[in-house]
Amino acid sequence: YSKGVWVPDPEAVWVSAKLLKDYNLGDENVVLQISDGREVQYPVVPPSGLPPLANPDILEGENDLTALSFLHEPAVLHNLRVRFLDYSSIYTYCGIVLVALNPYDQLPIYGEEVIDAYSGQDMADMEPHIFSVAEEAYRTMTREEKNQSIIISGESGAGKTVSAKFTMRYFAVVGGAAQQTSVEERVLASNPIMESIGNAKTTRNDNSSRFGKYIEIGFGRKGDIIGANMRTYLLEKSRVVFQVLQERNYHIFYQLCASRDLPEMRVLKLGGAETFRYTNQGGEDSMQIPGTDDVVDLERTRNAFTILGVPPDQQMELFRILAAVLHLGNVNIQASGRGGDRSYIDERSLSVFSKLLGVERTQMAHWLCHRRLAVGGEMLVKPMPGQQSLEARDALAKHVYGQLFTWTVTRLNSALRAQSEQPKSFIGVLDIYGFETFERNSFEQFCINYANEKLQQQFNRHVFQLEQEEYVREELPWSRIEFSDNQPCIALIEGQLGLLDLLDEECRMPKGSEESWARKLYDQHQSNNPSPHFRKPRMSNTAFIILHFADTVQYECDGFLDKNRDTVFEEPINILRASQVSPLVSELFQQEPVGGGKSSLPNGNLRSGPGKRAQREHKLTVGFQFRQSLQLLMDTLNSTTPHYVRCIKPNDLKEPFVFDPKRAVQQLRACGVLETIRISAAGYPSRWTYAEFFSRYRVLLRGGGVQTQEQIQASCQMALPELIPDPEQYCFGKTKVFFRAGQVALLERLRAERLRAAGVIIQSWVRGWLGRRRYIKTRWATLTIQRYTRGALARRLADILRYTKAALVIQKTYRMVAIRQMFLMIREATVTIQAFTRGCVCNNIMHLFYPLPPQVVAERAAVLLQSAVRGWLTRRAYRRVRAAIVLMQCCVRRRAARRELVKLKAEARSVEKFRELNKGMEVKLMQLQLRADLKLDALRGALVKLENQLETQLQTQQPQPSTTITEEEMEERRRAEEKAAQEILRLTQVGLVRPNGSETALMLFCRIVIFKAVAQEGKTLTAELDEERRKYQGLLREFTRLEQRYENLREMSMLTEVLTHYIQLHIPLAWVPAFLFCLYVRVDSALSLPPGLAASVLFLCVRQADCSGDKTRARSLCTAAVTAMKGALKDEDLVPLTSDLSELNRALSDLCIQAYQQLLSISETRLQPIIVPAMLESEMIPGLSGSGVKLGNFRKRAGSDPRAVERNAGETPSMAAVLRELGALHTALSRQALPPTLMEQAFRQLTHLLSASALNSLLLRKDMCSWSRGLQIRYNVSQLEEWLRSRGLQAGGAVALLEPLIQAAQLLQVGKKTEADAQALVHTCTALSTQQIVKILTLYTPHSDLEERVTLNFIRTVQERSGGQPPQLLMDVRRVFPVTFPYLPPPPVRADQLDIPDSLKISFLRRP
Known about the structure:
Layout (H helix, E strand, L loop, with lengths): L3 E6 L3 E7 L9 E6 L4 E5 L29 H14 L4 E4 L2 E5 L10 H7 L11 H15 L3 E7 L5 H15 L8 H16 E2 L7 E2 L2 E8 L5 E9 L17 H8 L35 H14 L4 H18 L2 E5 L5 E5 H11 L3 H9 E6 L2 E6 L2 H31 L8 E7 L11 H31 L13 H8 L4 H10 L5 H15 L5 E2 L7 E5 L4 E5 L3 H6 L1 E3 H8 L5 H6 L16 E3 L14 H17 L2 E8 L12 H11 L1 H10 L3 E4 H7 L12 H15 L6 E3 L3 E4 L3 H107 L4 H56 L1 H7 L1 H38 L10 H24 L10 H52 L3 H4 L12 H5 L16 H15 L3 H18 L15 H34 L24 H7 L6 H17 L4 H24 L7 H20 L12 H11 L5 H10 L5 H10 L12 H10 L47
Parallel strand pairs: 6-22, 7-16, 7-22, 20-21
Antiparallel strand pairs: 1-2, 2-3, 3-4, 5-6, 8-9, 10-11, 10-16, 12-13, 14-15, 17-18, 18-19, 23-25, 24-25
Helix pairs in contact: 3-4, 4-5, 5-6, 5-7, 5-11, 6-7, 8-9, 8-11, 12-13, 12-19, 12-21, 14-15, 22-23, 26-27, 27-29, 28-29, 32-33, 33-34, 34-36, 34-37, 34-38, 37-39, 38-39, 40-42
């Protein structure tokens, strides 16, 4: 018996425990230790028996519940909790069922990149997701050409509506047409409309669908969406007039009230939601839903109506009807008369209601308070009491809203209906209410649970059918699997004299009541024909209990008859039908002819007067209609291949990632997941192909080496009876071996024991070998040390003897030398003393007998002083000269620097700099300077002419002394001469006049006048020059802006030679025929031409036409070229041409970009199917896969297509295929001499596609996240890196785009245990986001028993250390990098230099 078990718990439902003592057969108790440390005695008594076994740790967190070794309730609950809380995975497979837990949080797992990652992938290869179910349905439909259905069910608030929306979005993206149409947009636009008029806030869900819907999305022959159709079931009309506390009415009412201030909404006379009775019953706290804006939601709804073709005036009519319903709820009806048998109306709100709908107010007021009766063939009008009038008012409101809802659905279906062709097949999405049970359950819960009973029956039979088909396909001897069939419960409800029949019978009775119906139920199903699924409550006579498959529910009979009748009087309907203001109101209530078993009012009955042939009551009740529509739905589902999604509400508090095990178990039992587990466990839940079983359990089998399929199958069949003695626990099929529950765990234990025993033997041999090797090394080392030690000791003794002898010699010699040195020193000292003594004696004798003169002594002292003074003076003079030289050098250098600065400033301000910027402005400045020079020369010529005239006059006229000159004239002449002399002196100082000795004062004065004129003209010219300079600065700025724009435009354009570089690509002759079309060249001969020939010929033709001045010919030639290229690119929209030939560059630039995008699109189309198999699945390194594969890794999900196995058995694309595609593209582009920069950009885009696609698939596949797979991925990526570097493409950034995939592969290989590992991991994986790192760590799966899972503490440590990064999970595969076309100047080519083939017949273009 296993060591790990599960025991019941009142709070956690099930808790894990360990077996402290082995259980022996016959023991009454089992000693267990609970996970919290407590020891308990678990009684082993029926019916509980032994506690359920726990699964091995290696199976914890499995994405498919049927892959668990032990299938039972605690294992399912624990696996869901681990995936939801520890791994943040909300989706889990359970066979053919996808279990979805509502996270109550926004998760980044629904973007377009996720859709791209799941598109075209097998369901078994990817992580569980709603997109995976949608892809499986889409692939099955296109492959088998059979209709599909996706059944989404669950409680209110479990996420059914969101799942249905994401499913439809997936179909809209994947099933989109080749050209964008509005079909997908219209299908998605139906969601906000139906949410507005069919969803409401409840205590369990803020956006609860109060109706069921089945949407059939039609697909054409090519798999694209061409139309859709919607069917609805059981709208909760009672919500229109009543809501419990903390709930709201339908969203559309609150949206209208919130948008009441809009100009077009003022005619509706609306107020706040709190002012209307139909919207304020839930309380003030429920008026607004947190996180939503009703105004924005209404705008979204109106946009959706517009997309679906509903005109604005019809939208306003719809809003008028909805506003009228709100005003109708405020109509106050009070009782009057004796005993309250009459009633009267407050007509204030009724007038607004009548005005909005265009009906007579008095008639509506009368028939709301009166009714028409037939007595004895006569028609009588009887007043109604106040309460009955209120019920009639509410019935009218519900009926109006129901008719409006039906009209909206019909309008949506007409807009979504296929126009061009009939759908070849469809995929239906069923979003229907799940099993419901409340404290008080009424007619709505009865119908909902009845529908779930029918769906559960269909689900059980489908699961059983899949199991049966699997056994038949494998030719297994199988016996019928017993499963709980709920047909008796369904017969109790819909059978003869069942609950619905008795209810309809009671509704037809004139005085039928709930009490009478309850007594009939007790008599029929408890007394006369007892049913095991029917009970009577002990404390009530107006209630009954039904034992549903999910739970036992007690229903209160109060309100069943009224809701089943859904009665509304005919007189108010006739008034509405006669409306002349609103055509929509008349359309809603147009009565259809009665007959054919069809009700004229599909949402209710209509009571009419006796004067017509119509019956007073139509016999089709709500229950009968619901039963018919449900049977139609079941027929549709049975004719399709169903796919199931079960939505689970993890908690009732709407808290993100909070798991309540009680609520989860309750829903698991209700939605049929546990029944699926039980059916699977009743048969053979574990199934392996023979190859997978042999690969996993090879250590338990006989034989080795590479074997054939027949040998592998024979080996498995021979070994299994020895491993599992009981033959009932396994069974052999044609291609698989089947095991009952628990047998895989037994095989795992046997495998672990065999591996442990083999490991012990290997360890003993290895340890013995290591011990012997260590002993030999130690012995050899010991002998070597001894030998070296003895030699060292001998050498040391010899050295000691030699050193001793040497020491004696040294001592002897040293002593001799020391004594000799002492003797020589004493002798030298003695001689020195004697010499000094004798000298002193001689000096004393000489001074005594021969003294020196005083002059000699003074002269010697003076010489000494002079030498000292002269040295000091010389040093002081040197220091002064050096300081002066340094100062002079500084001044000279500063002056030179200032001159250089002035020169640079003048140069910066000079006109020459501006002339370099714009040659046109330089010419203008030269013209101005020339103009100034010409004027100055003219003035100088006039001055010379005037001087000549003055000289001539002076020569002809001799000065005569005048005797008549007065003193006044002399004074004036003197003043003029002084003034002229001052002016001459000033001009001489400024350098304008250089006077000669021969010039007279008059001549100088004339020159002064002329120079003044010249100066005035110079000022004018200077002012004009300054004005021109200012204009030049403005033009310079404009020139700079235009130059920048010109550079941008030049980068986006290319010459026509670039277009010819794509000749030998995989595109169907995209470029060459485009140019040769102008030259009448056949398309099939274009590939044989030299590269660039077509572009060169076209360029020469255009240049020749331009030089000859024939603009018409040049324009027509370019037009033909553009038209031909457009045709080759299959683009019907031609770029319009103008008369200016230069504007055709724009058209050519657009064609360049379009051709580049088409090149990448075709290359991506060829690469996309082989990216994931080549980069992730291919095994280029041998020996990494084998027996170390994790349990359940190679197994397909239960019920998967058997043909997928055959497809996977073929050759898997490898990296060689990817490199071949890239190499072919590179060779073609290189042969056409494509510019290197453009080639780098193209391969950068393709490298991003490879890296993003592989990384996204890695993040969504658990089987790819292992150490061995990481090593394989790194090797595959290294091959791609080497290929890019060998082609010189790394400069364009292509290699850098592989960094996220490289780091993801390294993440799978590094250690993941300690905090140091987490720190190193964060520093290493800089190109990955935090979510990507956590996702890979979460998906990491050990493929060997020696590896361990990544602990949650390690994942939390990584999250803490890598904060602040953007929340990105998947990379954007559709990201497009901007392309820049390099400028290529036209080559100096001539026509006679071209090698034109004769087959083109254009040799006349050459010059003769």
